[in-house]
Write a structure and sequence with these properties.
Largest sheet: 11 strands, mixed
Radius of gyration: 34 Å
Number of strands: 24
Strand content: 15-25%
Number of helices: 24
Mean pLDDT: 83
Low-confidence stretches: 422-426, 428-434
């Protein structure tokens, strides 16, 4: 063993340039792969800390609408929890859950915003959130109980080390729940970062109506249930589905009668998702009250990691094969003296193992240094306390074994049928070896060109989405959060700001285009309804956003009250409602409510540009829906500092304990495309890493082949070959394979990007110049990489090469 290690170290020292190139390339690739592995492993770890996670499920359902459109949801009626516990004996625990939207604690000197969960007492029987203080059996038993987390305890007491004994039994009050004091019964450790449920406090479900809520007609909460130990999930879930259908039978029939749901018996189909798969396997269109991940992002990252690893590994193989042929004489001697394939395998194993171990160590150090860079690029976070050490060790050990074994087996396959006498000659399949190396180079370049095409295409689409005309003015608008003010208080503040220098207009609305939406169904005919987005707006909304009033009129001050039935609609609403003639004065119905169309505005992009423009109405009735959430302040950019000062002064005059919170609207609207920006950055950095690794390998291969063709170059120069001709000879084969790589990469890149663009209602084109630019960049990289070494080889004195011939 010692002799083999010394032999390997001597070979590494002798071929240090080759070893340095392979080690750097492998280290960069392994660093990337390790980071991606940690992130993917973390994303798959959500909810696995719960003791009974394998037996806990969330209830969901699919609905088929009258027009055949299918959608999924998870909002249910809270009463269903007790119904299931009573009628499905396989269920051990069941709880509804929802968030207390806009919940705040009413402290002495301030209001403290809280991430509030609302559940029944079985919540803590099901979920294994760590209890630091209190009796688990007493939690949420009384309607005035509250359970808080360690971080909330720190915020309440203003200290990093609160006295839990003193906190237990203290009273807390919420601004939205009048005349009720909650008693702290337990203190939890902070919710783990890999939990889909995220809260700072939990209160009993009796108070769920005190907060704003999402409600789709079938409920406002989500439902978790835990099966008894030993129960077969498939059988128990089928009983749950049957009971859910029976529970909602009247609602389904009513929805079918009102033309909301399809008349099919399968228009409402319940299904369950295991707790461990909630984060990545959500099929819900808009998941309520939970954190969700992106399985597509993980797939893309995994593919990127495999591509980078393939490029680095193929580099290693190419350069290692070159070194194998240098050792052909040694292999010949060993085989002549009776050496077997296993002996040759051991000869290469030690050298490869040392090189790959060095690469892994360097890759681990580099990966640790680059984790903050990855966090910044992906806008995600790798948490060291969530790293699964056994999985990481197993992954690293398996990778080292596979890489070392594969690279050590390659010379066995190359030399297994070659006679020892041929191995000792200089006729060593130079053509075959070069051809195999160039095939690898071609594959590497094809993958790199695909990455470059993807980088340019995704960046182009992202810029298109961010700069596309939205149909309204989003520039020079500040969105001021007034959710915690009364409607009358918000109106006073709006009017106060309207008169300030630099403010050109102000408006009240309940939606700011990036914080949720509300919809209602309008009757198109006796057999058809239209799902429509609805926005509360005052009479200043249309001029503030510079919307075009195509027909009719805007709201007037008198329309903004609790009884008005006037609405302003967009062009898409008129089209989908199939209104003949002018829509002005038409009466449209939504359930028992009847509204009069007083105006029509242009179609504008209130959703993201991923989606097509949908039917929309504006209403001014102050009794419909929730209160105002935002004041939109349109300002003159030259007076921005004065406007900010006026906003701060106006907020202070409102005499509220709330903190001032405002955002610049155009920036927030751009943030709706963070997913595309993250993907673009990820592919860009993957392309850069691939190009660096590819260039290192190509440089090493050029050095190797130049050395092997030294005699040929010398003979050509003696016979009158010019430097340019020699450079063209050396570069020609590589450029040929880059050209073939381009031909392979273009259709593959076009197909992948075309499939990706299908996710967007509005998209840019895959212009020809994207592919041309990718090809030119690939060609330029190849020329820069190989030309320097080719020039050095071409300018050498031929006498040096031929003196011993």
């Amino acid at each position: 063993m010692r002799s083999r290690i010394l032999y390997a170290l001597r070979n590494i020292k002798r071929n240090r340039l080759n070893v340095a190139i392979t080690t750097i390339g492998l280290s960069m690739a392994l660093a990337s792969v390790l980071i991606i592995f940690l992130f993917v492993e973390q994303e798959h770890s959500y909810n696995d800390f719960h003791e009974n996670a394998d037996r806990i499920f969330r209830l969901n359902y699919t609905m088929t609408l009258k027009d055949g459109t299918k959608g999924s949801d998870d909002l249910i009626k809270p009463d269903l929890a007790k119904d299931l516990e009573d009628k499905v004996p396989q269920i051990e625990h069941c709880t509804p859950y929802r968030e207390g939207y806009m919940a705040q604690l009413d402290l002495k000197d301030k209001n403290l915003k809280v991430k509030l969960g609302i559940a029944n007492q079985e919540f803590f029987d099901m979920f294994s959130f760590k209890l630091l203080k209190g009796n688990r059996n007493d939690l949420l038993v009384d309607p005035t109980n509250i359970v808080i987390t360690k971080s909330l305890a720190q915020k309440i007491t203003g200290t990093d080390s609160p006295d839990y004994d003193k906190l237990i039994g203290q009273s807390l009050e919420f601004t939205f729940i009048k005349n009720v004091s909650f008693t702290i019964k337990g203190i939890l450790a902070d919710v783990p970062r890999n939990s889909t449920l995220d809260f700072e406090a939990i209160i009993p479900f009796e108070h769920e109506n005190a907060f704003w809520q999402s409600n789709n007609g079938l409920g406002n909460s989500i439902l978790f249930y835990e099966l008894k130990n030993g129960v077969v999930p498939e059988q128990a879930n089928n009983l749950v589905y049957a009971e859910v259908k029976e529970f909602y039978q009247k609602d389904i029939e009513k929805a079918q009668k009102n033309n909301l749901l399809s008349s099919s018996s399968k228009c409402f189909q319940p299904y369950a998702l295991p707790l461990k798969s909630l984060y990545l396997d959500n099929t819900i269109d808009g998941v309520a009250y939970q954190l969700t991940g992106n399985r597509t992002q993980l797939k893309i990252l995994t593919i990127v990691a495999l591509l980078i690893l393939f490029i680095a590994f193929s580099n290693y193989i190419i350069l290692t094969i070159g070194q194998f042929f240098k050792k052909a004489g040694e292999v010949s001697i060993r085989k002549s003296m009776g050496g077997k394939n296993i002996d040759i395998f051991k000869m290469f194993l030690s050298e490869n193992l040392i090189t790959i171990l060095i690469s892994f160590i360097a890759g681990g150090i580099l990966g640790d240094m680059l984790i903050p860079v990855f966090n910044n690029i992906s806008q995600s976070q790798i948490y060291f306390n969530l790293i699964n050490i056994p999985s990481l060790v197993a992954f690293s050990a398996l990778s080292i074994i596979l890489l070392t074994t594969l690279t050590s087996l390659i010379p066995i396959f190359i030399f297994r049928k070659v006679k020892p006498t041929l191995l000792s000659t200089k006729k060593l399949f130079a053509g075959k070896k070069a051809s195999a190396s160039q095939v690898f180079v071609g594959l590497q370049y094809a993958l790199t060109i695909v990455l470059i095409i993807a980088t340019i295409s995704i960046s182009k689409q992202t810029n298109y989405l961010k700069n596309k005309s939205l149909g309204f003015s989003d520039k020079n608008i500040i969105s001021l959060d007034v959710r915690y003010l009364s409607q009358s208080g918000a109106t006073v503040l709006r009017d106060m700001l309207k008169n300030q220098a630099g403010v050109t207009n102000t408006s009240l609305t309940n939606r700011d285009f990036f914080d949720g939406y509300s919809t209602r169904s309008f009757e198109v005919s006796s057999s058809e309804v239209l799902n429509t987005y609805i926005f509360k707006a005052d009479n200043y909304f249309i001029p503030t956003l510079n919307l075009k009033l195509l027909e009719g009129r805007n709201f007037s001050e008198s329309n903004v009250d609790s009884t008005d039935k006037s609405i302003v609609v967009n062009e898409e609403f008129v089209k989908k409602m199939k209104i003949d003639g002018s829509p002005i004065g038409s009466i449209v119905s939504s359930g028992k409510n009847r509204f009069e169309i007083i105006g029509v505005v242009n179609n504008y992009q209130f959703l993201t540009s991923r989606e097509k423009i949908e039917p929309m109405i504006l209403y001014s009735n102050t009794n419909i829906g929730n209160g105002y959430s935002s004041i939109l302040v349109k300002y003159n950019p030259e007076n921005l500092s004065n406007v900010i000062s006026a906003i701060k002064k106006g907020w202070k005059e409102m005499n509220t304990k709330e903190n001032l919170n405002y955002t610049f609207w155009d920036k927030e609207l751009e943030n709706r495309y963070k997913v595309e920006e993250r993907l673009s950055k990820t592919i860009l950095y993957a392309s850069i890493i691939s190009i660096i690794i590819l260039s290192l390998g190509l440089f090493g291969l050029t050095v190797l082949i130049s050395a092997q063709r030294t005699n040929e170059i010398g003979i050509r120069k003696v016979n009158g070959a010019q430097i340019g001709q020699v450079i063209m000879m050396l570069n020609g084969n590589y450029l040929k394979w880059v050209f073939f790589a381009f031909l392979v990469a273009c259709p593959l890149g076009w197909y992948l990007m075309n499939k990706w663009l299908e996710n967007f209602a509005y998209k840019t084109s895959l212009s020809w110049w994207i592919f041309a630019l990718a090809g030119v960049l690939a060609l330029g990289i190849a020329l820069i990489t190989v030309s320097w070494q080719s020039w050095r080889a071409a300018t050498r004195n031929p006498v040096e090469a031929l003196r011993y011939e």
